[in-house]
Amino acid sequence: MAMLRQQSAQPLSSCQHASAEAYATYIRGYTQNARQIRHLLGFRARFVQRYPDLGDWFRAPLAERVGRLYGEERKQPTCRVSYEARPYLMFLALDGYAQFDWEWLLAVPRLSIWNLLDRVGQDLGTVELIEEAVGLGYDREGATHALQWAVSRMFLHTSNPHVESIGDTHLTVVSEAIGQFGERSDLALFFGPVAHSHQGIARRYTCHLHLLHVILYHRGQVSQEPRRFLNHRNPRPVMKPRMEAVVARYLTARGLTDRPGTIGGLDLALRQFIGWLAPAYPEVQSFAQVTREQLLEFAEAMNTMVGTRTHRPLATLTKRGRLSRLCVFFQDVATWGWNEVPDRPLLGSGDLPKIPARVPRYIPEDELARLMPAIGSLTCPYQRAALLIARWSGARREEIGRLALDCLDSYADGTPRLRIPAGKTKRERIVPLNEEAAAAIRVLQADRKPERGFRDTQTGIVTRYLFVRHGQLISLQYLFDASLQTVCTAAGLTTADGKPTISAHRFRHTVGTQLAERGAKLRTIMNVLGHSSASMSMVYAHISDREVLKEYQAVLGPGAAIAGPFAETLRSGQLSASAVDWLKSNFFQTELELGRCLRLPQEGPCECELYLMCTKFVTTPEYAPRLRRRRRIEQALAQDAGGNGRSSAISRRCAVLSNSSPIWESPSRVRRQLSDQRGCPLQSDVSVSRQGPGKKEKARGSMEYVNIMEAARRCAVSDKTIRRAIHKGTLPARFPKPNRCEIAVSDLEHFTPGQVQGAVQSRIAALERRVEALEQQVQRRLRRPGAAKPSRPSPRAERTTGPLPRNLVPLPAFAQKHSVAEHKALAAIEMGLLPVKCGEWTDQHGTLVTRALDPKGRQAFYQIYQGVPPFVPCEQCPHEGTSTPV
């Protein structure tokens, strides 16, 4: 705004009238009509007579200077002198006699100077601008009108002879002038009484200026990236100056490391709290006077607040987010030891509203089948490509909007591969991509116009993005919100009020759910979705309904074949309905190596030494091979302990074998017990019961068979071990079809790979012997008389006075060399981000040095400020692995 006021004052100091002879010479240069010449000179004479000092006209009211207002006839304007003198005023600007202010230039709807320029043979360079706009995909007629409006106003304001003289400063001044002009209360005089037309005028002026900004940016003439709509907010009244000064300082400090969105959220939360505090507690003028009770009262008051955009009560997630930002603010300022703030945090995580853990809303198969044809029928290639990428990659919408132009390549086998930029987790990733989505990307790449790239918000690198049209980034609202409204309406997936039921993020949940249901590994889900922790990807494993149903029915379903201490409780139906509901929803958490532990949360953790002895343990026939192998291992370890005379190990192994003997029983016995309880034999009993020699082949016809991979999973061995056993003949198998091998489940119960069992037994026995030897060694050393430990030399204290050490460099000099302001470095030190050495040294020039950077500090300095203008790297950047000062 200061720049705008400075330039607005220039016309008053440099304006003057032109002589009648100079104006007459100019008129006769393009017309010989005596009547026209006489009228134009008469208009000038009356204007000079009324305003002998041109500054008086500049100081007159705007309505008087405009002359003809909205709805007035041409022959009856408000100020006839000013209206008829417009040709003379254009001459003053062309010859440099005057420069006009932005209020007048924006209030006059039509100021065409192009005919005058053509008559005098002056070119402002708009022809090249129009051709460049057409090359970026703009319509020629619309680009001509917008560029001529913007360039003509700038010329009349600055008198610059060519468009090449326009820079970032000029664009900023015009943008501020449009914002101020749109706030005038007398706009109805110039554009009519309708209020929305006033907003349309300011928006249209902004669009004209934006087009000029886009062309100049891609030409390389300006450095500031174009933004479609600049946010001109009215300055908010200062309610509590001391508190708002702390807020401004805090936002500046956080701005060194956080993104603009984070800073905006902090600013909103803190300003809202101050706005509530001003009428509620007017005596509180500093954050140091704020109490915990007042913060809790503010949290309660948020239940009655409404959103500024939705005009509805704030959601729980919104309230939690704003309170969380207040919590972070008080924690940070207390840690940094600032003045005017509390010396301890006033809020904790326990004070935040609790949010229920929701299951990700994936798109069902029937809705997906209706949605995909509608996406394929979109006419806009950008919208179609964005939705297809979201459907097949699982990327976030912000990541899709920042895809680079060269984001697509392929694996060695030709499968398309997509490179997703760093997003929420600050990591790039590469994922395979469906051919339909890859084809949509290739269409955009082939139709791309040459233009300048944009600086990436995450990496700071100038990048040519994929979703760029007309020389500017396409908004996420157009790529996703508008397109989903179209396709959901076409597919009939809308609510009663016409809103779409599908969001862009639901595609991401759909990809994660489908990967989990189709057996993808947890690491694969993490890599595809870009999760930083396994717990985030485990959510999709929990919603794999088919797997939950299968395993739930195997244990808790009617007629399930189970064994273990807790089996009888399940069969008798003694579990309450609430316990069954909890087990059903948390069934994945109950799985163990050899079965499941159905202990409820209110029963506390399992206190048994071995879960095989737990009263809540239950197992199924699926775990039979592992159970028998475990029994043999326990027997071998008991024999080994007896041979070595280890009585404690013998008693522990024997207790496990005796107390858990029902678990070792074969599944056939369990099934026969269930059959006796129901009074009829089970069909599957025939396949697992013992048969006579003459009925062996008949029984095999009704046996349950599995393939090699399933057999390896049940036996907890690799598939190669199963194949070797089949080739050696130790494991029977059949081949019903070519390239298909099947193994009977009953044969797996008696199969134990010798080399695996022997290796496990020998390793466990060796480890137990080693543990006992170490225990004996510890006991012997404890019995010895204590020996004095040799004193270790204390580390050498760092010198904080005298000459500056060779491995240190003064902080001011280092910051100046990298074009970083010293106060920014001090702010990073105060936040604990930049390690610094403090002392009182003298450098080689005799200058006192109180703060210096060691190699770690120089490396941290580079990591903080690299890529942040106006940072300039030196020849030793990034200062890794070097101790030589700059």
What does this entry look like structurally?
- By secondary structure, this protein is mainly α.
- The strands form six sheets. The chain has a four-stranded mixed beta sheet with strand order 13-15-16-14. Strands 1-2-3 form a three-stranded antiparallel beta sheet, covered by helices on one side. The chain has a three-stranded antiparallel beta sheet with strand order 10-12-11.
- Strand 4 and strand 5 form a beta hairpin.
- The relative contact order is 0.04.
Give structural attributes.
single chain, three-stranded antiparallel β-sheet, mainly alpha, 886 residues, elongated, 42 helices, four-stranded mixed β-sheet
* Strand-residue proportion: 5-15%
Tell me the structural class. mainly alpha
Name the overall outline.
Answer: elongated
Radius of gyration, in Å, reads 40 Å
Taking the sheet with the most strands, its summary is: 4 strands, mixed
Number of helices: 42
Numbering strands along the chain, what is their spatial order in the largest sheet?
A: 13-15-16-14
Q: Give the proportion of residues in helices.
A: 40-55%
Give the end-to-end Cα distance, rounded to a whole number of Å: 40 Å
Mean pLDDT: 79
The total strand number stands at 16
The low-confidence runs, each spanning 5 or more residues with pLDDT under 50, are 1-12, 607-611, 670-701, 754-758
